[in-house]
Amino acid sequence: MFVPRTLTTVLLCLLCAFSNGNSQTKLHVNGYLSQAYGQSNSYQLHGIGNDGTADYRNLALRFRYSTQGNNNLTIQFSNRSLGASPLMEHIEEVELDWGYYEHFLGDNTWFRVGKVKIPFGIYNEIRDVGVLLPFFQLPNSFYGEGRSAPEGLSGLTFTHAFYILNSWRIEMVAFGGYASFIDWLTVPSIDDGSVQFMSGMARMRRNLGGLIWIETPIDGLRANFGYGRRYVEGGVNFTENLYGEQWGTNANASLDASFENWFLRSEFSYGRLEETGVWTYGIYVQSGWWMSEHVGLNLQFDKLKIKDVFVPVSFTNGVVLQYDLDADTEAALSLVYRASSNLVIKAEAHRYWGTNIEDRYVSFFEDPVWISYGLLSVSASF
Predict the structure, then answer these.
(1) Cβ(209)–Cβ(118) under 8 Å?
(2) Could you tell me if residue 247 is inside a domain?
(3) Which domain, by its residues, includes 155?
(4) What is the per-residue pLDDT for 1?
(5) What is the pLDDT of residues 315-360, one digit of tens each?
(6) CATH number of domain containing 358
(7) Long-range contacts of the stretch 305-312 (C-beta < 8 A, 24+)
(8) Cβ-count burial 128-141 (b if 16+ within 10 Å, e if not)
(9) Which of 120, 155, 178, 364 is deepest in the core (most CB within 10 A)?
(10) Any residues with CB less than 8 A from the CB of 370 and at least 6 apart, and which?
(11) What pLDDT band is residue 17 in, cutting at 50, 70 and 90?
C-alpha cells in the first residue's frame, strides 16, 4: 500500500514528540537489504524469466523510538522489486510496512495499535531480514503473494505471556483490523488464447483472529497455532464475476526446531471460503546445517493445493464442474556463505511443478508445468 503523505507526516510528528518530550527516549535505526539475480530455464515464475533479472530486491528501513517507560513507536518503510512480475503495478516505490504505537501494561502484557505486524507463522516479523532467512524468498505456499497472508494489519494486537510448570512459556496474541493483499490469476485471451494476467487488491474486512506460541523447556524448540476469520472482497477472485465477496477462515500451525548448527522448520496452513466451499492447504518443510562457521546448506520442500475449484462454464459448454488443482510444488537447495552476522551470500537452485505461471496460461485440464530457476543474492543489515 502506498504511503499517504498525511499519514507519513503524522507518524514523523509522533516520532519527534517521543524524542523531544522525554530525555530517556532512544532512537534505534535498522536497515536491511537483499539484492538478487535470478533466471529460469523457460517460463516466468515469481518475476524470474528466461532472460534473467537483477531487478530483484528487498530493502527496509526501520525506526524505533523507545523510552525507559512503557511506550514505543515503530515505523518501517520498504522498497522492493519482483523483477518482471506483473504484480509490480501494485507495489509502490516506498511503502509503509508497519507503523504502530506499543504500550506495556506490565512485564508480560502489551498491545500495539496502528499498522501492526500480523501474528502469523515463523517468519512474518523477520521477512525483510535477509541475513536470517535460509532462502531469498519465503515459502510461497505460506507467505507468497496472493496467499491472503499480508504483512501488516491496520488495527491492533493484544499480547499476554506467562509460564506454566516454571519452564514452558506461553504467548497468546489476539488481533483485529483491516488488511489487503494482491489477488491474481491467469486466463486465456479471447482473441488468440495467449495468457492474460489479471490482478487487483483484495480487501480483508472484519479480520479477527489469534495466535498461540508455545516455547518448550528445550532451548530452540517452539511451536505455534493460529486461527483467523475475515470478510474478503474485491481483487480478482472475490468479485461477482468469480467467487464473489464472502467470509473466509484459515488455520495454521508451525514447528521451529533451531539449534546451534542445524534447524528443522515446518508450517501448515488451511483456508476455506465459507460460501463456495473452495479450500486450500499449504505446507513446507525446511532443514539446514551449518557445515562450518561460515558455510551452510539448506533444503526446502513447498506445496500448495486447492480443492473444489469451480471451472468457469465458458470452458465446459455450460456445465458446472469442480476439480482439485495442484497449484504449486517446489523443491529448493541453497548454499550460504556467512561472511559475518551482517553479511550473507546465497546461491540457490529451485525446481518447480505447478500452474501459477506468469507468462503462460495452463488450462484446467493440462498437466502442471516444470520450471527450473536459480538465484544468487547478497543480504546485509545494520
Answers:
(1) no
(2) yes
(3) 103-381
(4) 43
(5) 555 545 566 777 899 999 999 999 999 999 999 999 999 988 888 8
(6) 2.40.160.10
(7) 305/280, 305/281, 306/278, 306/279, 306/280, 307/278, 307/279, 307/280, 307/281, 308/276, 308/277, 308/278, 308/279, 309/278, 310/242, 310/243, 310/276, 310/278, 311/364, 312/242
(8) bbbbebbbbbbbbb
(9) 120
(10) 351, 352, 353
(11) low
CA distances from 145 to 61, 113, 127 (A): 21, 25, 13
For the record, the C-alpha cell of 48 comes out as 524470474
In a domain, 252, yes or no: yes
pTM for the structure as a whole: 0.88
Pair 39, 55: CB distance under 8 Å = no
Cell numbers 507518524 label which residue?
Answer: 11
Task: Name the domain count of the chain.
Answer: 1
**Residue 270's closest CA among 280, 285, 260?**
280
Q: Which of 38, 200, 172, 176 is nearest to 109 (CA)?
A: 172
